[in-house]
């Protein structure tokens, strides 16, 4: 069997005679080895997103399961089936597994049958939602956020979740002291036993604020990169710019978004603009560098983006305009010399 003919087959550019040759070869030992290797390559590619924490898929096991499932469902087991030319029943399973698109489908559904599927909770721009995990822990997600978690955890099993966006966690302590780990997209990990904390994780940056209890923040693979946080600590980390710092804050201010309010405590306008972009999916333009550095302190309603913009404009004397999906923030007057 030539590689050229195989590539033509996967591109659906073969004649019926050529297809018959390829399918017959797939039913040989060499063909089985080729299919297994191709499936392994596909599952190890960058396009494949296996559920976190799950063992690597076994191509041999998946091929066997698919063949058995197709044999069990074959109508030939009950009534005779009219032969359809070169597409005969003994090679039908190979045709399904060999097609590029169907091979991907088989890999996806076969993998899902072998391993349980995590649950995923998404929130739309500007929306919040609250959910209770199987261990009794509660999570409130801010707008444009995603949480992946297991439907249940066994006794003694590490409780792991994956967060992208912003969420407030109220983690319950378990009788057997099972760890609770929050994985962030920027390779940061938060480990807790029982506590309340707020997490903001967007692309390369993360901000963690501890309300009460005790958590360990892993910012790298070395032991010295593990940071123990105390209540009132805010830790900011940007793995792209290598900016890291810790400071003391009022935790209630950082998680006030849950109560329909936004509280600013020496917050720069640049940070406010970033929050609007993350939560509402808009682009915020502040052309004045000094204005971007200006800090704000106060409380405004968090009912909608327009409510926030009105509050910023009134409370901090700003001129704010919106053009489609772009927000432009300017001073209402020039600064005095």
TrEMBL record:
Keywords, alphabetical: Membrane, Transmembrane, Transmembrane helix
Keyword Transmembrane found: yes
Organism, scientific name: Spirosoma aureum
PANTHER family: PERIPLASMIC SIGNAL SENSOR AND SIGMA FACTOR ACTIVATOR FECR-RELATED (PTHR30273), PROTEIN FECR (PTHR30273:SF2)
FecR protein domain: residues covered: 123-215
Transmembrane annotation, as ranges: 93-111
A GO MF term: sigma factor antagonist activity
Pfam family, one: FecR
Stretches assigned to the Protein FecR C-terminal domain: 261-329
Protein name: DUF4974 domain-containing protein
């Amino acid at each position: 069997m030539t590689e050229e003919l195989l590539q033509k087959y996967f591109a659906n550019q073969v004649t019926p005679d050529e297809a018959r040759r390829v399918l017959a070869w797939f039913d040989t030992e060499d063909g089985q080895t080729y299919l297994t290797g191709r499936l392994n390559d596909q599952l190890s590619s960058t396009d494949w997103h296996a559920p976190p924490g799950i063992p690597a898929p076994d191509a041999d096991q998946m091929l066997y399961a698919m063949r058995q499932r197709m044999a069990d469902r074959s109508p030939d087991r009950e009534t005779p089936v009219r032969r359809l030319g070169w597409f005969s029943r003994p090679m039908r399973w190979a045709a399904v597994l060999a097609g590029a698109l169907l091979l991907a489908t088989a890999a996806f559904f076969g993998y899902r049958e072998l391993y349980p599927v995590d649950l995923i909770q998404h929130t739309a721009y500007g929306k919040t939602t609250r959910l209770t995990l199987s261990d009794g822990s509660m999570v409130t997600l801010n707008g444009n956020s995603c949480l992946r978690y297991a439907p249940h955890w066994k006794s003694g099993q590490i409780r792991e979740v994956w967060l992208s966006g912003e969420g407030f966690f109220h983690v319950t302590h378990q009788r057997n002291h099972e760890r609770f780990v929050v994985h962030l997209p920027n390779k940061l990990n938060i480990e807790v036993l029982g506590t309340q904390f707020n997490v903001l994780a967007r692309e390369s940056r993360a901000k963690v604020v501890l309300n009460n209890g005790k958590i360990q923040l892993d910012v790298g693979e070395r032991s010295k990169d593990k940071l123990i946080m105390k209540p009132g600590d805010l830790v900011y980390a940007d793995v792209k710019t290598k900016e890291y710092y810790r400071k003391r804050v009022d935790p209630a201010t950082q998680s006030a978004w849950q109560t329909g309010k936004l509280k600013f405590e020496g917050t720069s306008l640049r940070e406010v603009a970033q929050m609007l972009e993350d939560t509402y999916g808009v682009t915020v333009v502040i052309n004045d560098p000094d204005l971007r550095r200006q800090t704000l302190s106060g409380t405004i309603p968090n009912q909608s983006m327009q409510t926030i913009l009105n509050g910023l404009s009134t409370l901090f004397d700003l001129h704010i305009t919106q053009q489609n999906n772009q927000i432009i923030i300017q001073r209402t007057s020039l600064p005095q010399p």
